[in-house]
């Protein structure tokens, strides 16, 4: 077995309709990491997750989870996986407690009430354990999906758009839970439309578009490599125009004349920041404040999709 808990090699998938959902995708995921998969609707995110989880038959290529082939060793690979789907798929007439007990039993796990209690408590569901699912709010039902996915103590947890349509408080609770699970060694693969979600909790970012994996990279490295920075200079006195001596630096002057913005490549050794600041001093401009701002992950994501289209 390799050092990866999930290995996808040269995977493609074409549906009967002729739609090619995945095109030669390769992806290796390390144990205990959080990987965020970003992509627009129809990019192939859910197809990829469904194949790894054994819900959709793969096309050419191979997929292994914890060393088990998802086709040849379906039962063994599926036991390693917890899946929180986008849709609410729970029996509305069952109690919260019976739902998680049933989910654990489905995977042949011995009953462990202490573990299930801890899982429900971590999701603020313990007080609702005797409530029927139909009595829960939408946010509580979403928490129950996570509890059911965790009931059999999986090593890999897939979260397919877990916070779509939930409130900010629940989203933050989920982020905290994800971090706790990672500390316990659980590997988490997250698909999301919320760029700030990936930026807040992921170790690596994968960007998928039209069935192709455009890149998979450490979040910090990605932002350093592709993230432009801005140096924002607040002036003591407003300017009518940028002085001619500063024209070569392509500074942007705000409408009120009090801010100069210099955009540069944060990953470059030759960004001319020092020279630009020297030219500011020679031009006798008095600064009130200086701060930097990095290009956001959302801006990087949008530009990569534009380049791919």
Automatic annotation (TrEMBL):
Keywords: ATP-binding, Nucleotide-binding, Transport. This is Multidrug ABC transporter ATP-binding protein. It comes from the Bacteria. The lineage of its organism: Bacteria, Pseudomonadati, Pseudomonadota, Gammaproteobacteria, Chromatiales. Residues 6-235 form the ABC transporter domain. SMART domains: AAA. The keyword Transport applies. It holds the Pfam family ABC_tran. It comes from Arsukibacterium ikkense.
């Amino acid at each position: 077995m390799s050092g990866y808990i999930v290995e996808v090699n040269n995977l493609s998938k074409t549906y009967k309709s002729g739609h090619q959902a995945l095109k030669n995708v390769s992806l290796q995921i390390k144990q205990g990491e959080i990987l965020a998969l970003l992509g627009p609707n129809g990019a192939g995110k859910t197809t990829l997750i469904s194949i790894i989880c054994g819900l959709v038959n793969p096309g050419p290529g191979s997929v292994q989870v914890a060393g088990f082939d998802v086709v040849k060793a379906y039962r063994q690979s599926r036991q390693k996986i917890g899946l929180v789907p986008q849709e609410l798929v729970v029996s509305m007439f069952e109690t919260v407690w019976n739902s998680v007990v049933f989910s654990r039993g489905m995977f042949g796990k011995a009953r462990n009430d202490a573990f299930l209690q801890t899982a429900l408590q971590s999701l603020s569901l313990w007080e609702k354990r005797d409530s029927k699912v139909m009595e829960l709010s939408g946010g509580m039902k979403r928490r129950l999906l996570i509890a059911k996915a965790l009931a059999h103590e999986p090593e890999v947890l897939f979260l397919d758009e877990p916070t779509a349509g939930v409130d900010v408080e629940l989203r933050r609770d989920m982020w905290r839970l994800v971090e706790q699970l990672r500390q316990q060694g659980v590997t988490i693969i997250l698909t999301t439309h919320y760029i700030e979600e990936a930026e807040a909790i992921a170790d690596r970012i994968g960007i998928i578009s039209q069935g192709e994996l455009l890149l998979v990279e450490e979040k910090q490295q990605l932002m350093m490599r592709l993230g432009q920075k801005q140096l924002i200079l607040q002036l003591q006195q407003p300017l009518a125009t940028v002085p001619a001596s500063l024209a070569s630096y392509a500074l942007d002057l705000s409408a009120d004349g009090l801010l100069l913005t210099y955009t540069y490549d944060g990953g470059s050794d030759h960004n001319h920041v020092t020279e630009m600041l020297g030219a500011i001093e020679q031009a006798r401009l008095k600064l009130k404040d200086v701060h930097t701002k990095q290009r956001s992950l959302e801006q990087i994501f949008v530009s990569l999709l534009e380049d791919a289209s």
